[in-house]
Amino acid sequence: MRRPLEGFTILEASADDCALGIRLAIALAGRIAADLGAEVVKIEPPGGDPVRRVPPLVEGQSALFAFLNAGKRSVVLPSGTSGGKAAFGQLLAAAHAVIADAALVGSCELESALGARLPAGAPRVAAILSLLAPPAPPELKASEFTVLALGGMLDLVGEAERTPLRLGGHQAAYAAGLAAYTGLVAGLCGTAAEPEIVRVSMLETVLWLNWKSLATASWSGAAPTRAGRAAEWQVLRCADGWVALVYQEVDWPALCRLAGDARLADRRFAERHGRLRHSRALADILEECFLKLTRRQIHETALAEKLPLGPVSSPEELARDAHYLARDFLARVALDAETSIAMPRLPVVWSGTHFAPGPVPALTRRPSPVPL
Amino acid sequence: MKRPLSGCRVLDLGIITAGAATSALLADLGAEVVKVESPSYRDPFRNWSADGPQPKDGPPFFRFTNRNKRAISLDLKRPQGRELFLRLAAKSDVVLENFRRGVMARLGIGYAALRAANPRIILASISSQGEAGPDANYVSFGSTLDAMGGLAWLTGYADGGPVVSGRDINYPDQVVAIFAAGMVVTAWLARAKTGAGAHLDLSQRELTSFLVGEAFVAGDLKAPRNGNAQAPFALQDCFRVAGGDWVAVTVAPEELAALRTLIGDSGEAASAVGLGIALARWLGQRPLAAATAALASAGIAAAPVLDGKQALEERGRLWQIAIAETAAGVAVKGFPFQLEHAPLAIEREAPEIGADTAQVLARLGGYTRAEIEALASAGAIECAPRSINAIPG
């Protein structure tokens, strides 16, 4: 099957001092486009994208870099030289879209390229990413982590009396990457004569994700905070690991049947407000029950009873998960001539077809003066 | 204003967040989104059951997620309702749903039926586990998927178990909207070239795993959970300042010398743990504003850990577009990105039930006022009281 973005060329570029979180966001947007069939050209400085050196390393290569850049073409350009600028201009003129960090705009040809002086139609879209954007003061230094703090997401995760926690991986960066991809492909739909500019501020994206907390604050004047062991939904231990306790009012009887503990019939737990008031006691009882059950047992009951409980799996376990195997979710990707690695394909099945990612691009040792 | 999805009509069966927020973003991009509910079934976000003070502008989560949409109400369980839906599908470009698997087929509006009505239709099916596979009927909320997708395994304190994003975030339910909207727009773009519709099978669990994809590449991690620490940073964590507030700090390896100078650390604490203890002591003696200002002057990223109320108060100072306002000045969900030449904007408030049933049936389905009144009195459709009078008799 023809991939939906076949025929499109998309450029990825970032300034030398681009924040790590923005490098990851740009790379994720490009990875999605590459899986969907676009020719994605990643411009790297002579030493290579710094993400190539971020641990953990697998077969000597960064797992992060491998995941984010599978299926792309890498072009090394010397930064700050006239030859590099000329080559960049050439690449830009041949691209339908460019994904770049805000620091790059103004520091090179990008700004003039976004004017109206280009050959008709190229590039039609520029997605410009930054950690913060106006009205935030430009001198405010940020990281992906401090963006999570400002966006109210850190405050909501973890134990009440311990440090606020970030979610695993790079969720703020990847969410910004998703926003950049969606904005970019929307821009490609447009027919305006001048190029569309997509602005992605990671903080705005994080706040958009955290809208429920802001909505609650907007009408009630107070926002929720992390409750840890007192949270209505939380992770409990079970016989062979952990399970996320997730349920709604309507699920309570089925949850009681699964737990099979007479103490749950206590009046305190009969209504939701009582369960919330006595949430620690409830968590203790349910954990005692779950400790007699394996994740598989909980999984099977949840599936049969339509309970939204979540047995916790590690990525390593998921690589062997029957459901993921049935859906070919893990794809083998060439890391180099001898080695291949498994990584998630794009999480969409398109009219019955899924798109396997391409090989991880090696770093060209020598800058290519004429990249085309 | 002409927007990227101008001319694209979406029949929106999406509910709660994952589905309804995806179609909200499509509406922001210019699609005409028609929310489809039923006389016997509403979007659960319309039911506001929380204890405490009642919001004056209607159920806030519904209002936030369904602005920029129209709404119709028809009973898909009746043959008349189904026929009506398929007639509208013939005049639409996208159908979007996040029901439990099997519901669409049982209602007789699965992909085959939709394609028979409209060969160019794009069906976006957002589900917990995807269309097929042994867990296809597994149900979830976002926190379920944190657990089942591998994200919870990687979230937590170094000395503790896995942690989910929890009921107040339900991260996988939020983030899927940006991705799913991106896939629908991609299908729309491709259709303009090829003329072909598509069935998009979007598994929220797979997306959750994709968003920790590097951990699948890395394989067996010896320490999967490490609090807030993260490579390649020398130090990253939250610390209490004087007064008890938390501040988040990220220190890159090349910033270590500046940090040591700032806090008067001799460099004896060679390890990140030792430096963290020294920084915690230093911050604990300083009020929030002084602490963040001093770190900023040393070129180190630092920010107060805000809750939702505090974050909202920073609107206009640190951010602008994530929350928007209706013409009446009521807060609603804003945008995760912005387009410079075709800016996303709020043009309609979230509709009441059946607000546009009569108008949509007349305009798209070609139904007469008499037919609409007959369908309404038979209970096959539901029209907001005012709307039916707008249709010529």
Instruction: Look at the structure and give the CATH class of the largest domain in chain B.
Output: Alpha Beta
* Low confidence ranges of chain B: none
Strand-pairing-aware structural class of chain B: alpha/beta
Note the gap between the termini of chain B: 32 Å
**Any idea what the CATH superfamily of the largest domain in chain B is called?**
Crotonobetainyl-coa:carnitine coa-transferase, domain 1
**Uncertain residue segments of chain A:** none
Summarize the structure.
With 372 residues, chain A is of the alpha/beta class. Chain A has 14 helices and 14 strands. Chain B has 2 domains: 9-212 and 321-390, 3-Layer(aba) Sandwich (Rossmann fold); 235-311, 2-Layer Sandwich (formyl-coa transferase, domain 3), CATH 3.30.1540.
Record keyword descriptors for this entry:
A: 372 residues; Rossmann fold; formyl-coa transferase, domain 3; 2 domains; 6-stranded parallel beta sheet; 3-stranded antiparallel beta sheet; 14 helices; 16% strand; B: 393 residues; alpha/beta; 15 helices; 13 strands; 35% helix; elongated
